[in-house]
Design goal:
By secondary structure, the protein is of the alpha/beta class. The protein is 38% helix and 13% strand. The protein has a domain at 49-254 and 272-294: Type I PLP-dependent aspartate aminotransferase-like (Major domain) (Aspartate Aminotransferase, domain 2, 3-Layer(aba) Sandwich), CATH 3.40.640. The strands form three sheets. It has a nine-stranded mixed β-sheet, sandwiched between helices. It starts with a helix and ends with a helix.
Length: 454
C-alpha cells in the first residue's frame, strides 16, 4: 500500500470517526429494552471502511484474518466462515452425507437425534437432507437435552446427534460424547447461541465432530449476518469447504489459482484428464461465503469478545440475585454441571402453580417496554412447518410416523418440551444493557407479580 493510499485512507477514517462520535458517541438510552442487540464501536466502522476501500467485496484478506483468529480463539485446527448460522448448520449436516465419508456417510432414511425445543435451523438440515429426526425431551431449568434419555431413543438407523447448547448453557457434553463414541455416532454441536461457553475447560463447538456458530446481531459476536463452521478433522474441513463453495473440489480461495498444485493434472469423475480443477465439482453444494466487509467487522468484534462475555455473565448473575425472591412463582436458569455458560439470554419459566400465566407476564413486560422472546419454536412439532407437511419422524423410542399423524398423545411424550412452550420465555443480558436497564426489568416483573398475589 503506497504512502498516498495510506494517507487518503486515514483521512476517510478520521472523517468517519468524527461522524461516529457525533451520531453514536453519546450514552445509549433505551425506551424499549430489547432482549438482544449488537454493540459496535469506531473500530468496526474503521474496518468496514478499510474493506470498502479495498474494493474487493467477496471473501479476501479480512476473511482470512477472521478465520485464523476464530480458530485460534476456539483452539481448533479449522474454521470456515459462512453467511449465517443457519448455513453453518446446513453445511455441517450436509458434509456428513458426502460419499467421501464412505461407510460413515449419512444416507436418506438414516436417523438423527435432536430436540423439539429449539430453533428451526437445527432441525431443517435433517429434513432437507432426507434424514429422519428423532426427538428427545429436554430438562426444565437448563433447557438442554435430557442426555439420560438419548440411548433409549437409538435404533440401528441412528447415525448422528445434532443438538444446540441452549442460550449459551452447554448440554451434558460428557454423557452425550460418551454415547456418541459408544455407538459410533457423529456429533454436531450447534453453538450458535453459545460462543465462548466452556465445558470442563473446552469451548463449545470444539468437542464434537463439527461445531457451528452464528454472528447475527443478537449473538455474542456480530457481522450483521454471518456464521462459521469449525472442526479438527481435515477431511471434514475439505468437504465443508466444498459444500460452501458451490460443491467445488478445488480449495483455491477466491481470486487465486493453483494453490493445490494440481489444477490441470487430475482425472476426476468421468471428466477428461486435466480438466480445470477450479471447475470440477465433487458435491451438490451452495455458495454460502461471506463478504470481506462482514469479515472486517468480525475481526474487530472478536477482539472484544471476552469483554462482551464478562458483561453478559455479570448481567445474568445480577438478574438471578434480584429475582431470587420470586422462586415461589418462577424457575430461574440452572447452569449445566461442569459448564461455564456464555449467556445469550436469561430464561425464566412460570411455575404451573403460579397465580398467573407466562402469557400474562410476557404481555405485561412488553406493555411496559421490556423486550421478551420465546424459547424459539417452543415445541417445534406443533409448528405449521411440521404439521402441514408429510415428514417422517420418531419421538423417543416410538415408532416411525408421519408429521401429519401427530396427536396430543404424541406431544405428551415430550412433557418438558410442552412445559417450555407454555411456560418459558427470556429477557436480555446483552452487553449494551447496564444496571439501570436490568433494574427496570426486575422492577416490572416484581410489580406484575405483586398485582397478582396481593
Amino acid at each position: 500500500m503506497s504512502d498516498t493510499e495510506i494517507k487518503l485512507r486515514n483521512k476517510v477514517k478520521e472523517a468517519a470517526k468524527e461522524y461516529f462520535e457525533a451520531i453514536y458517541g453519546g450514552e445509549r438510552k433505551f425506551e424499549y429494552i430489547p432482549a438482544s442487540g449488537k454493540l459496535l464501536g469506531i473500530e468496526e466502522l474503521e474496518n468496514m471502511i478499510d474493506a470498502s476501500l479495498d474494493m474487493w467485496l467477496t471473501a479476501g484478506r479480512f476473511n482470512k484474518e477472521f478465520e485464523d483468529k476464530f480458530a485460534k480463539y476456539l483452539g481448533v485446527k479449522y474454521a470456515l466462515s459462512v453467511n449465517s448460522g443457519s448455513s453453518a448448520n446446513l453445511l455441517a449436516l450436509s458434509a456428513l452425507t458426502s460419499y467421501k465419508m464412505k461407510e460413515r456417510a449419512l444416507k436418506k432414511g438414516d436417523e438423527v437425534i435432536t430436540v423439539a425445543a429449539g430453533f428451526p435451523t437445527t432441525l431443517n438440515p435433517v429434513i432437507q437432507n432426507g434424514l429422519v429426526p428423532v426427538f428427545v425431551d429436554c430438562k426444565v431449568g437448563t433447557y438442554n437435552i435430557d442426555a439420560q434419555k438419548i440411548e433409549e431413543a437409538l435404533s440401528e438407523k441412528t447415525k448422528a446427534v445434532f443438538i444446540a447448547h441452549t442460550l449459551g448453557n452447554m448440554f451434558d457434553m460428557a454423557k452425550v460424547k460418551e454415547i456418541c463414541t459408544k455407538h459410533n455416532l457423529w456429533l454436531i454441536e450447534d453453538s450458535c447461541d453459545a460462543l465462548g461457553a466452556e465445558y470442563q475447560g473446552q469451548k463449545a463447538g470444539t468437542i464434537g465432530d463439527i461445531g457451528t456458530f452464528s454472528f447475527y446481531p443478537a449473538h455474542h459476536l456480530t457481522m450483521g449476518e454471518g456464521g462459521a463452521v469449525v472442526t479438527n478433522n481435515h477431511e471434514l474441513y475439505k468437504i465443508l469447504m466444498s459444500f460452501r463453495d458451490w460443491g467445488r473440489d478445488c480449495c483455491c480461495p477466491p481470486g487465486k489459482d493453483g494453490v493445490c498444485g494440481k489444477r490441470f493434472s487430475q482425472q476426476l469423475g468421468k471428466l477428461p484428464f486435466g480438466y480445470d480443477h477450479k471447475y470440477t465439482y465433487s458435491h451438490i453444494g451452495y455458495n454460502l461465503k461471506i463478504t470481506d466487509w462482514q469479515a472486517a467487522i468480525g475481526c474487530s468484534q472478536i477482539e472484544k469478545l471476552d469483554k462482551f462475555l464478562k458483561i453478559r455473565e455479570n448481567n445474568a448473575k445480577y438478574l438471578i440475585e434480584k429475582l431470587s425472591d420470586l422462586t415461589r412463582y418462577l424457575i430461574l436458569p440452572e447452569i449445566e454441571k461442569a459448564c461455564k455458560p456464555s449467556w445469550f439470554g436469561f430464561l425464566i419459566s412460570v411455575k404451573d402453580e403460579a397465580p398467573f400465566s407466562k402469557q400474562e407476564l410476557v404481555e405485561y413486560l412488553e406493555k411496559n417496554n421490556i423486550g421478551t422472546r420465546q424459547l424459539f419454536a417452543g415445541n417445534i412439532l406443533r409448528q405449521p412447518m411440521i404439521v402441514e407437511n408429510d415428514i417422517p419422524l420418531r419421538i423417543g423410542n416410538g415408532k416411525l410416523i408421519s408429521s401429519k399423524q401427530l396427536s396430543e398423545e404424541d406431544y405428551k411424550l415430550l412433557p418438558n418440551t410442552e412445559f417450555i412452550m407454555n411456560n418459558t420465555f427470556w429477557v436480555g443480558v446483552f452487553p449494551a444493557l447496564g444496571t439501570k436497564e436490568l433494574d427496570r426489568t426486575v422492577d416490572v416483573i416484581h410489580r406484575f407479580i405483586e398485582t397478582k398475589v396481593s
